[in-house]
């Protein structure tokens, strides 16, 4: 792609093209649909990397069975499928500009999730964080709990105060996400329908242990403790995440854990550093780029696209060879809707990415564009119909 083409696509994405330029771009994108080419694995990897670097906010989905290749990058709403190396791009800018897209074809609509959670203090008091003012929220057990202007909970120790062992729980309902800076400085971002329980004096404990349900992304800070001997030996304090069926131990790293009870298994994905996953007598050490899928007889360790694993944190659904039931579980949690399947459930697999910032009607229209399924919205119920 030439520099001139890149600049034209940048202007197109930003809505700065003239009508003539827009028409030229859309004609070019349309013509790409008729230029299938064979790509080597090396070239395919390069295109994937370039796509990731220029990924637009909104992406339309394709179904896996369509094995067609195009070598260029669409400017705005692209239809991208990964998995078996499928790339399929289409222009949707003209449709986006249309007011008809904003007016849903569905009888009802549901807004996307929001930045909110409920903080349960040690004394049982519950604080709905989307309603709480910025600043100090509470004082307890030698710490001050505050809400920052950018929508984050932080903990600060109160000097020269004694404190007992108390716990807080941060929980998100369906359609909510939130982040907390734990007392030891570690950052945790909670996905929808999740909870994290932790000690308010986490930074002073010899072992930092938290309990997770649902899904969360962790950036763990390294912590040490000095042993009072003649050499002042320094020992690293482990950080342990406990879920329903496993424990993850780290010393300082970035990772994601998906432990929803309605998912087929717990997935632990490592971005940086190293973690040890265990479930009873079986332990595995992960390297960056690896994912551990917990099973009854141990763990399945595999190489994965780490950006897909944490796409939710960055405002995107990113599906990797996922069936419609898996797709709809994610949509159900984020939009806080009930999912009902009518008739036979499609066996097609979906690959691609979609923005989490749009109303559910726009999300479902993009899924419908694959020709696999159709939807009806009735209040907070979404009915899935196999085409």
What does it look like?
With 387 residues, the protein is an alpha+beta fold. The chain folds into 3 domains: 3-102, no CATH class; 114-308, Jelly Rolls, CATH 2.60.120.1440; 314-386, Phage tail protein beta-alpha-beta fold, CATH 3.55.50. Helices cover 19% and strands 37% of the residues. It is built from 8 helices and 29 strands. The chain has helices at 3-13, 19-32, 41-53, 93-97, 99-102, 306-309, 324-335, 360-368, and strands at 59-60, 62-63, 78-79, 114-115, 118-120, 126-128, 135-140, 143-147, 152-157, 167-172, 176-181, 187-190, 194-199, 208-219, 224-226, 234-236, 239-242, 247-250, 254-259, 267-272, 275-279, 282-286, 290-295, 298-303, 316-323, 338-342, 349-355, 373-378, 381-386. The strands form 5 sheets. It has a 19-stranded mixed beta sheet that branches. Strand 15 (224-226) and strand 16 (234-236) form a beta hairpin. It is globular and about 70 Å long. The chain starts with a helix and ends with a strand.
- Strand fraction: 35-45%
SS-based structural class?
A: alpha+beta
Radius of gyration: 23 Å
Q: Architecture of the largest domain, according to CATH?
A: Sandwich
Characterize the largest beta sheet: strand count, sense, and whether it forms a barrel: 19 strands, mixed
- The total strand number stands at 29
- By DSSP (H or I, 4+ residues per run), the number of helices equals 8
| CATH fold name of the largest domain | Jelly Rolls
Regarding CATH, which class of the largest domain?
Mainly Beta
The portion of residues assigned to helices is 10-25%
